């Protein structure tokens, strides 16, 4: 397959000699890894450690003070709101995942297998990215006048006589939240799936057809198993983005629904950093658990 | 060119008000002071309402120094004042924010004797009374957090002292905004917000410390709860209030909640909402789009708010003098006129009068009928000839304040309840 040379490079055994050459190789290996490790340490590990530490601190109205107490966690787990909000967050993630996967897979499949020439593939793929030229927030907010009570959607449906009353649930509802999520994040599903699909050896599909497989059988037994890594990467993108979001939920639900991100942002706004940190830690653990489960299905390292 | 009169002005101001050390250094080297004034930059931050670039321009013209403005929402303002004391010189904050932030020691008290127009400042900010007969409203009334016993104190004084926390700049009385064309009948009480007639067409603001006050006004108006002090509720009162509103939310009473000014304007202008808590300039913004919108005076009175400027604790020397000069200039009337022509009130209304036409003064302050079109400082028509201001005169409006925006002792509990309400 196309990735053969790459994996060869990665797994090419280093010189096994224990002489000077091996030693300097080891040193240069460490040195090469050092910059990235340092960046990750400073910008990823340290902030997270800080958040974990602060989550045990105490807070007053206007300040936070170092302490080691479990108050924040006790309150978090003791409150029924926490469970409801986490459940809501997972609900958003799950539904968005289903839709982005279906749409993303279809789009990628079309691009990879139905569009014949490479130029068209590139052109159409770039077309998908055009919405990303404007900001996330603008793409989201532009739904509001469209879906509103007197918005385009409702006035069109009214003029066609499909409905007599404007549909209230179009805007400021779970529907509009999920619509915005799907709109915003489908591309994150398209890209990795398209990428893996492009690397599927076409002769495998020919072989399947020669062996008498129907279109669906080819899809199910050949293409989907081979695109699993792409699906998994897309899933990780979408799930983490949706679970960490707060602004989409706020705008599209008209502040009427909450997810974990909003709990955190409310706490921060009110200077309750320790409580925000505790919620963030729990969210982080939840997301890591979800990813851990996902990774059990596919060994991304092997498949790449 | 114009630097020379500026030097004179600065010198005079400093001589009149400043400490001996500053005066001495000014006397020995007046040019240095003049030059230094030009180099001074004061960093001011606050909510959008009074952080206007026009003010900074005028400061540059009149006083010679640079004022950098940063506009933030009230939560971010609180956060910044409490956690980043070195990031600002002047904090333009609301009184309830002051109650929260003052104990951090990030602000310094102001010497009242350096404030030239102190005696003319409206009574609300000094004794708490608009007129000697007025009753003091509930909530964080500005005078209750307006003074400290001595410089460096972190608790407030009960009466007027020589040390002021904030110099009042801007204030107003808030009520519900309605769309008269879509409602079609008179609205006279706060309780109408939860009237099932407006199911799916009501809104309330999602800023807990202000939203809770609007909720309290509604619950009291419905006759469901009698509060001892709406600005300082007990846990039981908080629970009851949220129970009523959670039920309404679950019954679909609210179309949305809003957090920013623009959101409230859009909700109202698009007809998504016909009755909601609103701020005065938002009403105007809806009206300038040609959509009827009324800032409805209600029987129970107004929920009022006020802001002021406070000095960062790290201000000293020339910068501190410049800040005092800025404050004195603020009360001279130009800013007051500028703000009052947008529908706010200024701390020393008499001085603002000189910067407004008789028609404008009559409309905005005295509650008289406009004799010709009223425009705001940006040229938008705010009212046509023949209209009167919703709610009437200054005394009618500020005299009918039922409570002030507040932070309560049970604030943390209330905030948790607010989160539950949003998630419900």
From TrEMBL, chain A:
Keyword tags: Cell membrane, Membrane, Transmembrane, Transmembrane helix, Transport
Cleavable signal peptide: none
Region described as Disordered: 1-22
A cellular-component GO term for this protein: plasma membrane
Entry's localization field: Cell membrane
Residue ranges of the TM segments: 30-57, 92-112, 118-134, 169-194, 273-298
A biological process term (GO) from this entry: transmembrane transport
PROSITE patterns given in the database record: ABC_TM1
UniProt cross-references to Pfam families, sorted A to Z: BPD_transp_1
Residue stretches making up the ABC transmembrane type-1 domain: 86-294
Sequence similarity: Belongs to the binding-protein-dependent transport system permease family. CysTW subfamily.
Official protein name in the record: ABC transporter permease
Protein source organism: Litoreibacter roseus
Automatic annotation (TrEMBL), chain B:
UniProt superkingdom: Bacteria
Gene3D superfamilies: Periplasmic binding protein-like II
Record InterPro entries: SBP, TAT_signal
Key words, A-Z: Signal
PROSITE patterns with a match to the protein in the record: TAT
Pfam families per record: SBP_bac_8
The protein's name in its UniProt record: ABC transporter substrate-binding protein
Organism per entry: Litoreibacter roseus
């Amino acid at each position: 397959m196309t990735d053969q040379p790459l994996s060869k490079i990665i797994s090419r055994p280093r010189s096994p000699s224990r002489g000077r050459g091996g030693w300097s190789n080891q040193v240069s290996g460490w040195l090469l890894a050092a910059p990235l490790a340092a960046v990750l340490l400073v910008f990823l590990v340290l902030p997270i450690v800080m958040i974990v530490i602060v989550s045990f601190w105490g807070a007053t109205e206007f300040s936070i003070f170092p302490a080691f107490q479990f108050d924040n966690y006790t309150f978090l787990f003791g409150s029924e709101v926490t469970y409801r909000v986490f459940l809501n967050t997972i609900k958003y993630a799950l539904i968005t995942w289903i839709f982005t996967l279906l749409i993303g897979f279809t789009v990628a499949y079309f691009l990879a297998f139905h569009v014949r020439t490479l130029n068209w593939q590139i052109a159409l793929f770039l077309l998908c990215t055009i919405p990303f030229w404007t900001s996330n927030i603008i793409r989201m907010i532009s739904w509001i006048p469209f879906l509103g009570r007197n918005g385009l959607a409702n006035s069109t449906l009214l003029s066609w006589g499909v409905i007599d009353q404007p549909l209230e649930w179009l805007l400021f509802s779970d529907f509009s939240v999920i619509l915005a999520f799907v709109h915003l994040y489908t591309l994150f599903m398209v890209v990795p799936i398209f990428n893996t699909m492009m690397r599927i050896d076409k002769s495998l599909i020919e072989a399947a057809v020669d062996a008498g497989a129907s279109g669906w059988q080819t899809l199910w037994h050949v293409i989907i198993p081979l695109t699993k890594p792409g699906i998994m990467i897309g899933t990780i993108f979408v799930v983490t983005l949706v679970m960490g979001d707060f602004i989409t939920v706020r705008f599209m639900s008209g502040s009427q629904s909450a997810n974990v991100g909003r709990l955190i942002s409310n706490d921060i706004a009110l200077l309750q950093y320790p409580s925000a940190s505790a919620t963030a830690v729990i969210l982080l653990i939840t997301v890591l658990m979800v990813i851990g489960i996902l990774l059990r299905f596919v060994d991304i390292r092997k498949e790449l | 060119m114009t630097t020379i009169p500026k030097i004179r002005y600065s010198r005079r101001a400093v001589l009149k008000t400043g400490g001996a050390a500053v005066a001495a250094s000014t006397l020995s080297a007046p040019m240095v002071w003049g030059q230094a004034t030009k180099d001074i930059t004061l960093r001011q931050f606050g909510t959008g309402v009074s952080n206007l670039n026009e003010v900074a321009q005028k400061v540059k013209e009149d006083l010679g120094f640079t004022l950098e403005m940063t506009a933030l929402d009230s939560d971010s303002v609180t956060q910044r004042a409490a956690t980043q004391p070195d990031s600002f010189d002047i904090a333009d904050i609301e009184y309830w924010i002051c109650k929260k932030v003052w104990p951090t020691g990030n602000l310094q008290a102001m010497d009242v004797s350096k404030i030239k127009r102190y005696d003319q400042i409206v009574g609300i900010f000094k004794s708490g009374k608009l007129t000697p007969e007025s009753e003091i409203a509930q909530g964080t009334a500005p005078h209750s957090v307006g003074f400290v016993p001595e410089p460096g104190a972190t608790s407030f004084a009960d009466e007027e002292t020589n040390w002021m926390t904030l110099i009042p700049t801007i204030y107003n009385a808030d009520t519900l905004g309605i769309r008269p064309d879509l409602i079609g009948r008179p609205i006279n009480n706060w309780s109408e917000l939860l009237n099932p007639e407006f199911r799916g067409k009501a809104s309330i603001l999602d800023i807990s410390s202000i939203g809770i006050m609007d909720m309290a006004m509604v619950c009291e108006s419905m006759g469901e709860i009698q509060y001892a002090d709406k600005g300082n509720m007990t846990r039981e009162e908080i629970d009851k209030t949220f129970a009523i509103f959670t039920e309404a939310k679950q019954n679909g009473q609210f179309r949305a909640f809003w957090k920013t000014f623009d959101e409230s304007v859009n909700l109202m202008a698009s007809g998504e909402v016909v009755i909601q808590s609103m701020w005065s300039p938002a009403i105007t913004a809806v009206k300038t789009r040609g959509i009827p919108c009324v800032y409805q005076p209600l029987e129970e009175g107004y929920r009022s708010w006020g802001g002021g400027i406070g000095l960062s604790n790290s201000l000293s020397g020339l910068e501190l003098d410049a800040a005092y000069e800025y404050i004195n200039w603020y009360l001279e009337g130009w800013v007051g006129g500028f703000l009052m022509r947008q529908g706010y009130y200024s701390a020393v209304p008499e001085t603002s009068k000189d910067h407004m036409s008789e028609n404008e003064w009559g409309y905005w302050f005295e509650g008289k009928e406009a004799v010709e079109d009223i425009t705001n400082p940006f040229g938008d028509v705010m009212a046509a000839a023949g209209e009167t201001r919703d709610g009437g005169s200054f005394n009618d409006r500020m005299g009918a304040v039922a409570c002030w925006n507040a932070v309560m002792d049970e604030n943390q509990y209330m905030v948790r309840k607010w989160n539950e309400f949003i998630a419900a």
